[in-house]
Amino acid sequence: MKRDSLKLKLVIFLSLAILTSCIALGFIIFYQVKRVMQKQFEEHVLMLAESLSYNSRYGAFTEDSVILDELIEGFIQLEEVVYVAISDYNGKILAKRSKSGASLLDEKGINPSVLWKEAIAAGTRTLEPIVSRNRKGLYDVSFPVAPSTYKPRHFPLELLEEKGYERPRGDDSRLLGVVRLGASSHLLDQQIHRIWIFTIYLTLLITVAGVGLTYYLSRRHLKPLETLASVARKVADGDLSQTTPQISRDEIGELTGIFNQMTRSLSQRERECKEYIHQLEDLNQTLESRVKKRTTELEELVCLIHGEKKKTERILHEIDNGVIVTDIYGKTVLINPAAQKMFAGITKGPLSQDLSTLPNLLPNLSRTFNDLTESVTEEIEILDSRLDMSRIFRFTSFPFRDEKGLILGKITVFHDVTHFKEVDRLKSEFVSQVSHELRTPLTSIKGYIDNLRDGITGDLNEKQKEYLTRMEKNAERLIRLISDLLDISRIESGKMNLHVVPFQFYELIGGVVNSLRPLFTQKRLEMLLNPFEGDGCLHGDRDRLEQALTNLIDNAIRYTPNGGRITISLEQNHQFLKTTIKDTGVGISPEDQSRIFDRFYTLDQCTLSGPKGTGLGLFITKNIIEMHGGEIRVSSEVGKGSEFSFTLHV
Q: I need a surface site. Which of 129, 144, 333, 563 has the fewest CB within 10 A?
């Protein structure tokens, strides 16, 4: 048996527990029995003293030594009695007897008055254990002899007095004498010793039996655990075929069954793992071949991407437009040399990768770099300190996304339009100058045409009138064109002034509709002007707003087929007046809607009636609306019509 085995520990623990319990129980039982036997012995000795006191009343009263000797001789024959003495009320010994080797403690007698007091204090009897000279335990009993112990019918005191016996006088008149008896406890000690030996043997017997039973039970119940431990060691070494028999139905038997089930499960798992390993080896070989193939393809793709990257970088390096690419955190990913050159005049050196200071120099770029989702096309003007001149850049900023639509950053492309702006300025000046030069002769020509039509030079035939009518229309068209060119020149130079006066805007709309009513009639168009119940008072340039309304309604008439419908409505919302002009014309494509308000821009499709426009009307209209603090919008669908709306402050 191993030192650290569970069986040895269990046997030692239970043996010590049984031994300790038996010893403790033996001591408790022994001392309880000893106390009971001592008490019974004391009661027996007291009973003997009481019996001697009762039977010696007459002899003590008559001081008859013969009676007392016979009485003592009977008591001294008892094995436990060692000595007996009877004294009168004065302490005189009337009779005594002791066994060989025993002596009285006090040969002079016993003071009855003291014994009386002791008897009264002890309940008429005293019991004092003493030790004799031979070291044997003795119990010395003193018991008073009193007349009250007599029964009157047996020992009447009057009869004794008649025979000449005198009663004791004084305080101790009730005391006739004292009985003193010595009892040896050697028999009690022998019985206690036998009980002690019996207790020791019984404790040893129970301990041995308990240890044996403990060993047997531990061997019986721990044997399956030893077998289970042995099988577990074999399983731990890799032998999963081992099982242990289930010989009981208790917890150990249940543990054995679970262990056998576990070994079977592990064995099955081992077989499955081996199969998986074989499958993984096959897959590994397949994956290795695929990885090699994929690696080759990726290397080729990387080389292709690297080549394309080089091409893109070369293109960005060679183009004249500035390109700045930023990530979602505003950090620069790419700046081409053209962008470095464009902003070198304001940054006083190469443009750094951190563009945080650039919006401070150019406030218009702040919204562009901060808003990743918005596409913006604007123009900025900067002062180039190197060239000591202003430069104008048109930039287009738009987000770029991955295949899943996630925003990766923003691309901003800058175009230097300074030269084009200068050309436009020169062209505008030229157009303005030419327009002024052409306006005077055209006015004269129109005046001569009016004179000819009025018959100043004589009567005209029908052919001449037709020619004059055509000449008048073309002259009016040229005058309108020259007026538009002059308006554009004033708008671009900032010299267009507004003559602001209060007026009823709804009445202005009605006047424009009435002036264009012949065109509605000519094309059989349905004209609807929705009623307006608000105030409609507006502060603005009446002539310019009339020009804007005329351009919008004229376009609606121009691009609406015969028999169509044009609807005009006016709505007031808080501090704004919203005017809507809706037609059922040919519509405008989304591509054209983004450029419809540019100057000289006309639609590609053929107009349905009349000559093609100059592309200046909507440009002038947009600027007039914006000069009044308003905003104009367009929404259209090809084939279904268009809707132009603008808002003005009341």
A: 563
Reported as type and span, the H/E element at residue 410 is: strand 407-416
Amino acid at 419: H
Which residue do the tokens 């150990």 mark? 252
What is the token pair recorded at 410?
Answer: 């923003």
**Buried-state track 239-272, b at ≥16 Cβ within 10 A, e below 16:** ebebebebeeeeebeeebeebbeebeeebeeeee
C-alpha to C-alpha distance for 204 and 217, rounded to whole angstroms? 20
Q: CA 423 to CA 629: how far, in whole Å? A: 29
Q: Which residues contact 95 (CB under 8 A, 6 or more apart)?
A: 59, 65, 68, 69, 71, 72, 84, 85, 86
**Residue found by looking up tokens 């351009």 in the block:** 551
Residue 158: is it exposed, middle or buried by C-beta count within 10 angstroms (0-12/13-18/19+)? exposed
Q: What single letter denotes the amino acid at residue 124?
A: T
182 phi/psi in degrees, rounded to 5: -110, 125
DSSP secondary structure string for all residues of 447-467? HHHHHHHTTTT----HHHHHH
Supply 160's token pair: 């004794």
Q: Which of 97, 293, 296 is nearest to 181 (CA)?
A: 97
Distance CA 241, CA 270 (A): 11
Amino acid at 492: E
- Using one digit for the tens of pLDDT, what is the confidence trace for 26-36? 888 888 888 88
pLDDT digits (tens, 9 = 90+) for 550-588: 989 988 998 899 999 999 999 988 788 999 999 999 988
Q: 3-class DSSP state for residue 540?
A: strand
pTM of the model: 0.41
Q: Give 119's DSSP letter.
A: H
Nearest to residue 443, comparing CAs of 404, 415, 417, 482?
482
Indicate if the alpha-carbon torsion angle 431, 436, 441, 444 is positive or negative: positive
How remote is the C-alpha of 225 from its chain's centroid? 46
Best CA proximity match to 552, nearest among 505, 522, 513: 513
